[in-house]
Design brief:
about 140 residues; alpha+beta; Nuclear Transport Factor 2, Chain: A
Length: about 140
């Protein structure tokens, strides 16, 4: 028997935006020290993504983290273009982040200074980090 009275297939489904409320992490003491929302939550997410190697931790999906360690030993010219792609791919997995721009890599001995601008739904974030992965 076919049910009567119901409208099948015409129900509307609306995507609701989930809040970006997350735990505030104190990396120096290894503790959770409160909650973050908005721009501060996005900044913490950027830090976490760039500190996490993709495919290394079972707790994260394969879309989370970065593959910067694959760039070790590459020529400086190839490194610049590939680093931009890897960072863009890693960060844009988060739906709050649209793109990155103005990527600059300055090599100095065994370290590199990476700086770029993250374009988010709440505004732009200037990001700068010194790394030693590009040896």
């Amino acid at each position: 028997m076919i049910p009567a009275g119901g409208v099948l297939g015409k129900a509307s489904v609306a995507d609701e935006r989930q809040p970006s409320l997350t735990w505030k992490l104190d990396f120096e003491r290894g503790r959770v020290v409160g909650k973050l929302d908005g721009m501060e939550a996005i900044k913490q997410t950027i830090d976490q993504i760039l500190q996490t190697q993709r495919y290394s931790y079972l707790i994260y999906s394969f879309n989370y983290g970065n593959e910067l360690s694959r760039l070790i030993g590459m020529s400086p010219l190839f490194l610049r273009s590939e680093a931009a792609r890897v960072i863009r791919e890693a960060l844009t997995q988060d739906d709050r982040i649209g793109d990155i721009s103005d990527l600059q890599i300055v090599n100095a001995a065994d370290r590199a200074l990476i700086s770029f601008t993250v374009l988010t739904e709440l505004g732009a974030i200037d990001y700068e980090r010194e790394v030693n992965a590009f040896v």
